[in-house]
Specification:
The structure is a single chain. The chain is mainly alpha-helical and about 80 residues long. Helices cover about 40% and strands about 10% of the residues. The protein has helices at about 5, 20-40, 65-70, 70-75; strands at about 50-55, 60-65. The protein has 2 domains: about 1-45, no CATH class; about 45-79, no CATH class. It contains 4 helices and 2 strands, in the order H-H-E-E-H-H.
Length: about 80
């Protein structure tokens, strides 16, 4: 749910106003997803090709190792 204020203009007390840097990140995220929806193409590797995901940060976007970077072992043990 933390990505919602980056994607939508929420006027709720639950969400703080975005900084200019955060607004640029939100626009970049939205533009990237719209481009993908229109073309079906991306330069990102497939998730099936090694369990990597894209790290969407305000700096350069890069591959992130899903299981390591998202503490998958920890979350899996909570079941």
């Amino acid at each position: 749910m933390s990505e919602l204020p980056y994607l939508f203009d929420f006027q709720l007390p639950l969400f703080e106003k975005l900084t200019e840097k955060q607004e640029r990140l939100g626009k970049r995220m939205t533009d990237t997803w719209v481009d993908f929806a229109e073309s079906g193409k991306t330069d990102w590797p497939s998730f099936r090709s090694g369990g990597y995901v894209q790290s969407l940060a305000s700096g350069p976007w890069k591959r992130a190792e899903f299981t390591k970077d998202h503490d998958y072992a920890f979350w899996k043990n909570l079941r």
